[in-house]
Amino acid sequence: MPLPDPPAKRRARPLGRVATVAALVFLVGTAAWLVGWATGAVARWFARPTPAPGLQAAREGPDDPAGLRERIARLEEARDRRPEDPAARLALADAYLAYAPHTQAGELFRQEAAHQADIAGALVDADRTGPSPRAGSAAYELALRRAGVLLRTGPEGERAALAVLEWLLEDASEPEGPRARLDRAAALNEAAYLLLTAEDASLRDPARARALAAECVKQHPAASAMPAFLDTLALALFETGDPEQALEVQTEALARADSGQLGIYLEHYDAFHKAVHPSGEQEPRAP
Fold first, then answer.
1. pTM for the full model?
2. For residues 63 and 53, what is the distance between their CA atoms, to the nearest angstrom?
């Protein structure tokens, strides 16, 4: 027969059982918490939203009607995520204008493009309520893009675009750096081309367009090699009564243009060539 436990040992045994039970409860509770946390983490991982594509990625894609509709959907999502971002609104306006010729509701898309451009203008003070931004700044480039959208939306848009370009050209200080010079040259070119080709005939001013186009080509070292700038200058020369020089400049524009850009350049070349050589004699279009 075993000897009875001493009193102290008899008291310690119940306490040991309590400690063991408490430890087991703690371990079970901790394990349950870890399982819950892990389950939630996994659920959050799989339920996380797909990262939104960048604005540049959203603007990419084919230019056929189906591709343009998909692009518009992506850019509308980008606009809704970033309603205060003027670049998102201008990208969407560009997509609307690209799609407009492919639908019977083209005028509605042009109107919506103008609306998005107006909102973008308000966001960057492009309504000329403040001093014009310096060439090379983000605000300058956004205003240039806004003018490019507006001038494609019809006569009212042309007038608004010209006002934006005039506002940009108010800053007559010497541009600092290649980017600023190129921005300034682009503004001069857009203004000159608009003054030559505006659907609203009251906006046309060939003499001023010629001065702006000549300044554009001189503004940036690379401008004289850009076919778009040369094309504008040639058209200005032609419209102010100098078809021979226009033909010479347009020949240079054709020589520097990519094959995908030739359409309007060839059209202008043929008009200039016909004016200089009315008998119809043929010459090489470009070296």
1. 0.72
2. 19
Cβ neighbours for 17, distance < 8 A, ≥ 6 positions apart: none
Place of tokens 């008899």: 10
SS3 241: coil
The length of the chain is 287
Residue type, 110: R
Show the tokens assigned to 191.
Answer: 């203004």
Q: Which residue's entry shows tokens 């591709």?
A: 67
Helix (H) or strand (E) holding 119: helix 106-123
What is the 8-class DSSP label of residue 53? P
Give the separation between CA 258 and CA 255, rounded to whole angstroms: 8
Q: How far apart are CA 147 and CA 167, in angstroms?
A: 11
Residue 187 has pLDDT above 50, yes or no: yes
Residue 125 CB contacts under 8 Å (≥ 6 apart), including other chains: 139
Q: How far is CA 231 from CA 178, 181, 211, 237, in A?
A: 21, 19, 14, 10
Tokens of 16: 């040991």
Which residues, 6+ apart, have CB-to-CB distance to 249 below 8 Å?
A: 230, 233, 234, 237
Instruction: List pLDDT tens digits, range 246-285.
Output: 999 999 999 988 877 788 899 999 999 999 988 766 555 5
Closest to 233 measured CA to CA, from 220, 221, 219, 250: 250
